Amino acid sequence: DPCGIPTLTATSATPLIRKDGKTKLIQTGNVFIYQDGKHKIIITPNTYIEKDGKKKLLITPGMRIEKDGKFKSIIPCNGSTTTPPVSDTTPPTISAIQSTATHQSATITWITNESATGKVYHGTTTPLNLGSAQTVSHASLQTGHSLSLSGLSASTTHYFVVESKDNKGNTATSTEHSFTTSAAPDTTAPTITAVSVSGVSSTTATVSWTTNENANSKVYYGTVTPLVLGSASTTSAGALVTSHSLPITGLTASTTYYMIVESKDAANNAALSSETSFSTTN
Fold this sequence. Notes:
- By secondary structure, this protein is mainly β.
- It has 3 domains: 1-85, no CATH class; 94-180, Immunoglobulins (Immunoglobulin-like, Sandwich), CATH 2.60.40; 192-279, Immunoglobulin-like, CATH 2.60.40.
- The chain contains no helices and 18 strands.
- The strands form 4 sheets. Strands 7, 8, 9, 10, 11 and 12 form a 6-stranded antiparallel beta sheet that branches. Strands 13, 14, 15, 16, 17 and 18 form a 6-stranded antiparallel beta sheet that branches. Strands 1-2-3-4 form a 4-stranded mixed beta sheet, with no helix packed on it.
- The protein is rod-shaped.
- The N and C termini lie far apart (129 Å).
């Protein structure tokens, strides 16, 4: 041995003591120790530690530990000091958490100061219970994180916590944040009722109807049936109202006219009535 320390072997006089599988073996006398890194053992000068490839490496043969059960200082035979790598026990730092939401989805973004995985816990109750919350995640190690939540309820406050874990298993969890989804878009057309024709003369008539929500007004009319909307004459008004009335002028006397009324709401949902008719006077 370059340090002048004999290599110890088991003999009947100095037997190796095998213990519980965590501390592999301990021999008294010249103090021969295999150490697993989980136990703190004070090692006095001239203690010799062999390398064990299955455990945390303390020193290689030919190196001597002066003292310190935490194994911070390793002194080789020439007296110079080297320091073994320090284990990473620091979790990532999470910052810049942001959320953007629609009526049924949201995107959560954040950054970490080191490459890490990403996970979002979310739900509609607060404080959020991470054990029962819904989750989305990515396993790739990165510093910029973005995860999408889908199938959310509209017009609802959702609470979330983000989590990132580095390649050593150190985990960081954010504080609880929230966002509110928008209202679901209006996809329902107005309901048209009470279509009627009044004030019919030889050349004019007035068409009236009601809708269950504010909407604009339009009348398609002509002398053929079924009425073809693409080629029919029209009259219209852009105001959004529930009571609709439109005059029709320039009609021909003693003629049957066919008509369809239309109303569109603010979301451009359109409703059409069935075809009806009226006849001008002589």
